[in-house]
Every structure is written in C-alpha cells, then in structure tokens.
Amino acid sequence: MGLFARISSGAAPDNARLAGIGLMLAAMALFSFGDALGKLVVASYSIGQLLLLRACAGLIVLSPLIWRQRAEFFRLQRPWLQLARTIIATLEVATFFLATAYLPLADVITFYLASSLFVTVGSALFLREKVDAPRWIAIVVGFVGVLIALQPSAQTMTWPALIALCASVFFAALLLITRSLRGTPDMVLASQQFLGTLALGAVLIPAAPSGWITPGLFDSALFAIAGAVSALGLLCVNRSLRLAPASVVVPYQYTMIVWGVVFGYLVFGDWPSMATLSGAAIIIGAGFYILLRERLGAAPGAISPGA
C-alpha cells in the first residue's frame, strides 16, 4: 500500500482532517521551494521554456506511478470538469511565474494568498460545505494579515500585481474543482496538470523573444528539481483535498508567505519589511488557531472524506 493510501486508509474524520492539514502544509513548503527555483530560472529563460521543461521533469518522476495506474485515465469522472480543471491549473502556473518575473517572491505570494478567502466563500456556495463562525473569523484575520503585509496602494497595484491576483483566483478555482473531483486518483489529477503546462509551454516558446535556449548542466538540474518538487507538491495537495473539506485545509496556504520570505532572502537577497513580517505573524496565528480547533475536534459541519 502506498504512502498516500496509508495516510487515508481507515482514518477517522478528525484524523483525516489533521492528515489533510499536514499534507497541505507540506505542499506549501514544496511549492514555495519550486517557486523560488522557477523565479531563478525565468531570469534567463522564457516562461514557456520553464513550463515545458518543468512539466517534462514532473512527468518523468511520476511515470512509474502513471504506468501503474494507467487504467484510471480511461474512466474519468465528469470529463468536461476534468478538462476545465486542467486549463485552470495551466493558467494558474503560467500567471504565477509571469508575476515572479517582475515582483519579489514574497510579494507575489502575498497577493496569491487572497485565494483562501475565495475558496472559503466558494466552498460554502458551490460545495455546500458548512463553515462555522470561528473559522470565518480566523480566515478573515489571516486575510487582514495579508493586507498588512502587502500595504495595498496605487503604487503596489501594478500590472504584475494584478497578474498575481489573477493567479490567486485561478488557484482558488483549482482547489474547489479538485475537491469536487476527489474521487479521481491523485496521479491522474497531477498528470493532467503537468500535461496542460507542457502543452502551453510548447505553444509559448516560439512566441518568446529569446526562443529556445539550450540549458547547461546546472540549469538542467534546476529544471529537473523544480519538476520533481512540483510533482510531490501536487500529490500532497490533491490528497489533502480528498481527506478534508477545502475550507479546512486551504487556510494553511497562508504559510507560503513565510516560505516566500525565507527563500526570497536566501536566494535573491530580498529582506522583507516590518509590515510583511507583522502580517506574516498574524497569518501564522490565524492558521494555528484553526489547527487548534481541529485538534480539539471542534469543527462543526465539516464533511467527512469521500462524502
């Protein structure tokens, strides 16, 4: 039995929610690391080449599991929704990396975190998940932390910032659709996302001013690591959304801002402002509050996995 199967096998609802939270936390750390690698790469290569080579590396990493579960690709549930999810996932990745080409990593992630609020509203409206008042308050407090970190003004609302906000909308839609397709195997969902970005990358490369640039050994390793990390992150987030309601696990994407600060400083020398650090502290506090409620079993109305 595989790792992800063991995580969910026979889990009680409360334990499943905690496992979902843990997997979402792991996914955010992995995605942030991959995002830092992507920002590093797009300084020298086009967005299209990043998408294509990152997708190739991810698919190579997943290929043994894809082959093992190949039969699942021929009995997809709700194929049109699967296609919509693939398109949205592709646009989300493209817009995110496009924004990182112009903005510091922590700034892009801060804009990106607005998707938590979108998901909470969407999960209540479209997935019929009940969100209790304390969790609403914690999510709103976390979003206030995002605003404090961002300090929105006419100067910060630039085109790159708007692109980052578009990425957050796409990410919210992706999470909601993934939750509604939780009967689809994780490997199928992850493979679809990589195939979508591979196709878009192949289309974008000829249109890029730089065209195709053959990477050296070091850059090839960066592309490979970015793809492998993204593959593992996708598996974590997809399994997380199968184990727990979107409104429970999605707030933990707030931890991305912490990783964005860490990798932004270590890789690019970007030191965050006091406002960013203050906002991050509020975000972390809101996330820990939700975690404490889950550990105490105080999650009224949350639906059980597979419901």
From TrEMBL:
InterPro entries: EamA_dom, EmrE-like. The keyword Transcription regulation does not apply. The keyword Repeat does not apply. GO terms for cellular component: membrane. Signal peptide: none annotated. It holds the Pfam family EamA. The chain crosses the membrane at residues 16-34, 40-62, 83-103, 109-127, 134-151, 157-177, 189-208, 220-237, 249-268, 274-292. SUPFAM superfamilies: Multidrug resistance efflux transporter EmrE. It comes from the Bacteria. Keywords: Membrane, Transmembrane, Transmembrane helix. Residues 19-149, 159-290 form the EamA domain. This is EamA domain-containing protein. It comes from Rhodopseudomonas palustris (strain BisB18). The lineage of its organism: Bacteria, Pseudomonadati, Pseudomonadota, Alphaproteobacteria, Hyphomicrobiales.
